[in-house]
Amino acid sequence: MPTSKTKKTQQASTSRTRSRATSDSTHEERGNGGELHQRAGGDSPPMTTAQGARVEDDQNSLRAGDRGPTLVADHVFREKIFHFDHERIPERVVHARGYGAHGVFECLESLADITRASVFAKAGKKTETFVRFSTVAGNLGSFDLARDVRGFATKFYTDEGNWDLVGNNIPVFFIQDALKFPDLVHAVKEEPDRGFPQAQSAHDTFWDFVGLMPEATHMTLWQMSDRAIPRSFRMMEGFGVHTFRFVNAEGKSSFVKFHWKPVLGMQSVVWNEAVKINGADPDFHRRDLFDAISAGDFPQWELGVQVFDDAFADSFDFDILDATKIVPEEVVPVRVVGTMTLNRVVDSVFAEIEQVAFMTQNVPPGIDFTNDPLLQGRNFSYLDTQLKRLGSTNFSQLPVNAPKCPVAHFQRDGHMQVSTQPGRTAYEPNSFTGADRGPRESGTDGHVPFPAEVDGTMRRIRAESFSDHYSQARQFWISQTDVEKEHIVAAYTFELGKCEIPAIRERVVANLRNVDEALATDVADGLGMPLPAASEPAAPVVETESSPALSLLGNAKETFEGRKLGLLLGEGADAAAVKRLTKAVDKAGGTVEVVAIAVGGAILSDGSTLPAKQAVAGGPSVLYDAVAIIAGSEGGTALADEPPARDFLTDAFAHYKVIGLAGATDALVDAAGLTGKLDDACLPVGTAKDCTAYVSRIAAPRKWDRDLSA
Ligand code: HDE
């Protein structure tokens, strides 16, 4: 609030501006492009320089003469442009494009028997969090629906220091050793001699790397599945990926894998839809998260843990230190121990989402590392990257990074030190007392590293226990539904089809033969190439049971909650039907977005005008989970004559969506080429009974067995 003194100054300057505008109107008009700006008053705070000096004129730089050169003496201009020139910081080398929100984690049961981490101390305990979701390969300005892994990084501001669980929405990784990370990233990013493709793995260098590194095969199956094109951040799982340790107060360690399960259930889009969403709304995921939280529809995840001991770990066919492997949920069930609710959007994308610094090495007492070589490498990398991006060792003082518990140490000074560090000593031991003494170690408490025995000969080596690259890839494949398998085949075919070098395609398909013959054959057929000889696996492929938990569609939740219906209206649409449908969808927890030929809306049967959120040209059906079209009672030709309205219906049909129809829609159905093809997922929505049946159908899966043949 401005003080009364400032208010007075504002009034004075307003009247001065006014009188100048009248007395010297030529000067004002030339300076302001003919518009007179309100220079002060209202609730606006007074504009100042960064040094706090009041700015008198923010429209004109200081000149010698009306048309003369700008003067170096213009420190206001110099300061403004100086700051602008330095606005950008380096984007993240990976996971550059992301979006985040604040939330709260609530512990559901005490885990004190297995971990002394205070965040899990007792049921009902709440800890503030900040989450950043991201794509991996694309640059900051890339589109949201790239086929890519999604980052799912959570900062828990615990009362014993920050815990960063820096995970992904896929539980395995491409490589086993952090030394290969720069190669992987260089392979997937734009090719260095041409600067494209952007945010795509569908190119030669990525698949060349994958073909030559069979350990990546398992992850590529996940990446080619619909998990890599999620419908929403709110509808995807998250995984800590590595095996971590829980350590309890007695110092006993257990292994643990972390899982986030979305309360809204998992959902993805189909590839053709993803491609079109990227054009229609490149910000689809960030907008979705922002809109949901702003509307009070707070997304939630359950935090689950898989906990097992050394003996159990030894019983697995694979090495729990190998990040290309999962622990099947059927073998070690996921125990839900907490929920996280995202309940606050950021105030500043830059200050929070861009400046948040996640680091795998941020663990509180009770959570510890294992010797997973990928995790060990990450513990090096994340500190370095923050210094590069944020430019100062004091990045942990930025509000989004600062712990919410007391911080006291002898680390001093440095660029952009914002805390005044009091006291006479900055070293220890010291023999001072009182405020001059400074902080002291506890001697008993704190993060005591788990005393794991370490022994061995120093060598650059990959453990023999890491050599099976195909058994779990096969397990993932056999755990998918037929529809999911078709999508995986189509994705490999698309991606490899973008590779220009035939040998690269062949090598990948040769590796896929070790996963499944049908998969390899279908991909080879799709590419129109002969099936190459299978590559030689480094370890025999072990036949495993399928793991139903690995299927996305098999675990889809039957609900329309958090989903969006696109309601395309023609002129004269039945007002009662529109009202009924909107109410029913709202009751089901979804939202309705009205689409019309013009954004001004449609005139309904009762003469009222319902404004649209989108004109159909800007609101294609790919933006919605289900669609309904309510035309007027006569003709309906207006919609049929609009190419975007035809596409709205054609695409919804091709993307297996449930379609509601009311009013005279025959002409549109015909124009969309669908006469005689509408199936049992194309339902009437005109009457109350129709509406009920339709709303219960949109909660169920898409019409996956739809006949799309001509
Ligand atoms: Fe990262 N990773 N990573 N990563 N990672 C980064 O840190 C790295 C890996 C993940 O929203 C960087 O702040 C190495 C696995 C997420 O701010 C960098 C290795 C997993 C994010 C880095 C890996 C991840 C990052 C770039 C191989 C899933 C975004 C910017 C050993 C468990 C965090 C930054 C955010 C970001 C290094 C592999 C997840 C360079 C060396 C495995 C979600 O430090």
UniProtKB/TrEMBL annotation:
Binding residues for heme: R92, R132, F181, R378, Y382, R389
N-terminal signal peptide: none
Coiled-coil boundaries: none
Cellular component GO terms held in the UniProt record: cytosol
Bias (Low complexity) ranges: 9-24
A Pfam family of this chain: Catalase
Annotated ranges, domain Catalase core: 48-436
GO MF terms, alphabetically ordered: catalase activity; heme binding; metal ion binding
Basic and acidic residues bias: start-end ranges: 25-40
InterPro entries, A to Z: Catalase, Catalase_AS, Catalase_clade2, Catalase_clade2_helical, Catalase_core, Catalase_haem_BS, Catalase_immune_responsive, Catalase_large_C
Catalytic reaction equation(s): 2 H2O2 = O2 + 2 H2O
Cofactor(s) annotated in UniProt: heme
Comp. bias (Polar residues): 419-433
Domain of life (superkingdom): Bacteria
Residue span of region Disordered: 1-67, 419-451
Enzyme Commission number(s) from the entry: 1.11.1.6
Keywords, alphabetical: Heme, Hydrogen peroxide, Iron, Metal-binding, Oxidoreductase, Peroxidase
GO biological process, one term: hydrogen peroxide catabolic process
Active site positions: H95, N168
Function: Decomposes hydrogen peroxide into water and oxygen; serves to protect cells from the toxic effects of hydrogen peroxide.
Family: Belongs to the catalase family. HPII subfamily.
Protein name in the entry: Catalase
Native species: Knoellia sinensis KCTC 19936
Lineage: Bacteria, Bacillati, Actinomycetota, Actinomycetes, Micrococcales
